[in-house]
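Exercise 7b. Backbone tokens:
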């Protein structure tokens, strides 16, 4: 009876799990189809000429994992097409240092040379990306620099090791193509005092350098000034080549949003809390659906961004299956523990940075635990474990009367109608009652007295025996 009810109530969760499995399994095909279709649509060709194509790649967003994944796709396509040049259109306020370093390595190691076109601004992490390119072309009125390391609140980080490391990276990136490293240090090290003779300025301690287009050209940080991409391509002498524009697809834009730290943490909170609440309060359906959809969005974003492989998805699905199995198969918690480990492994391996993923997961677990606790206090009586335990008490206070009270019989006397060995029948004031003794034998027709009456159990003793005692 209880198992049948459990399965009936758990059907919404099982149905959600099946749908989630189907959606996750289809993610690789869907993402591949979307990227292929977008790639075909983005290939805008001009007049044909000898030589490889020019790939125009737009990077007008925050420097983060999503941008890194998009640029990896763009550079891979350019390499496969044996392109002659990549013009990377850069317009960013910066972003994550680790993503900037990975993008810088991508530019340095690419077989296809890169020319950066700064369309507006390439500050902070964007400056590092630009310095890794062979040429930097700037739009009039644009800026480059202000590359000091800041925390998530925008405050300068004063850790000497961090400053030294990032300054060294910027300086080496500047030297890579013969640029004056003093300017890179002035853009990064807030404590440095540097005389910048080419632009007639002195960078004082406490300041961070930002260069205008004119200053960047004088300092050798801008190889040319152009109004737009076409002027840049003409300056490169590639105006007759096939031009292929590469922009982010809607799926990549969505993935960039879904893989941002705040959204990742929110999705994990909703996913963990939703699944846990659905397991506690089966039959609701909505928490389970919200939880499963949150996890689908988490893996969709990370898969499209190129971080999650099929092994991460399989680990997560396996973990979910083990947790559901724990509801039906008694394993003393083994299946549940293995399921939790598998789920955590799936989430961590799907992320760009394992440490960041662990922090997000820890925060999500704490917040989700609070949410689950509140829901348990409010709806705990509907919990799934209560299907295995009979918690109802048939007490008089709750209005239940399991048997009529016979306490009024205590002290009354009667006569045995049958031998009591030790159970039998007695007559008390004309009422036949089933009674027992304390273990002694009492024959028929013997006077007895009631000494105990608890529910249906009536205990008697021989009257003579009672008097003797």
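Sequence design result:
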């Amino acid at each position: 009876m209880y198992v049948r009810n459990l399965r009936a109530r758990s059907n919404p969760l099982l149905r959600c799990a099946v749908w989630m499995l189907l959606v996750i399994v289809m993610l690789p095909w869907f993402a591949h189809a979307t990227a292929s279709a977008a790639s075909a649509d983005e290939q805008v060709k001009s007049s044909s000429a000898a030589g490889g194509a020019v790939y125009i790649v737009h990077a007008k967003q925050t420097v983060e994992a999503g941008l890194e994944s998009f640029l990896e796709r763009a550079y891979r396509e350019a390499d496969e097409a044996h392109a002659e040049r990549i013009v990377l259109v850069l317009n960013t306020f910066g972003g994550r240092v680790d993503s900037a370093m990975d993008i810088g390595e991508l530019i340095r190691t690419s077989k296809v040379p890169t020319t950066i076109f700064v369309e507006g601004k390439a500050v902070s992490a964007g400056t590092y990306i630009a310095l890794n390119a062979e040429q930097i072309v700037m739009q009039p009125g644009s800026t480059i620099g202000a590359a000091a390391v800041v925390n998530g609140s925008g405050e300068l980080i004063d850790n000497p090791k961090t400053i030294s490391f990032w300054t060294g990276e910027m300086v080496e990136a500047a030297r890579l193509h013969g640029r004056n490293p003093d300017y890179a240090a002035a853009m990064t090290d807030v404590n440095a005092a540097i005389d910048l003779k080419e632009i007639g300025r002195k960078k004082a301690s406490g300041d961070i350098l930002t260069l205008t287009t004119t200053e960047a050209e004088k300092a050798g940080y801008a190889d040319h000034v152009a109004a737009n991409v076409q002027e840049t391509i003409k300056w490169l002498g590639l105006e007759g080549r096939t031009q292929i524009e590469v922009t982010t697809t809607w799926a990549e834009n969505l993935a960039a949003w879904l893989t941002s730290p705040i959204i990742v943490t929110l999705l994990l909170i909703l996913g963990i809390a939703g699944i846990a609440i659905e397991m506690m309060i089966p039959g609701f359906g909505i928490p389970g659906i919200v939880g499963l959809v949150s996890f689908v969005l988490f893996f969709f974003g990370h898969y499209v961004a190129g971080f999650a492989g099929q092994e991460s998805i399989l680990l997560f699905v396996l973990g979910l299956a083990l947790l559901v199995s724990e509801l039906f198969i008694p394993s003393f918690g083994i299946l549940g523990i293995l399921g939790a480990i598998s789920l955590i492994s799936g989430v961590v391996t799907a992320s760009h940075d394992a440490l960041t993923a662990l922090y997000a997961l820890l925060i999500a677990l704490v917040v989700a635990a609070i949410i689950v606790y509140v829901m348990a206090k409010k709806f705990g009586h509907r919990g799934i474990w209560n299907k295995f335990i009979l918690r109802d008490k048939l007490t008089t206070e709750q209005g239940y009367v399991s048997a009529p009270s016979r306490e009024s019989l205590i002290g009354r006397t009667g006569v045995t109608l049958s031998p009591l060995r030790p159970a039998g029948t007695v007559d008390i004031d004309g009422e036949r009652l089933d009674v027992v003794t304390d273990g002694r034998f009492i024959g028929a027709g013997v006077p007895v007295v009631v000494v105990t009456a608890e529910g249906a159990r009536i205990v008697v003793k021989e009257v003579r025996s009672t008097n003797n005692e």
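Instructor comment: The first strand starts at residue 54 and ends at 59. The mean pLDDT is 81.
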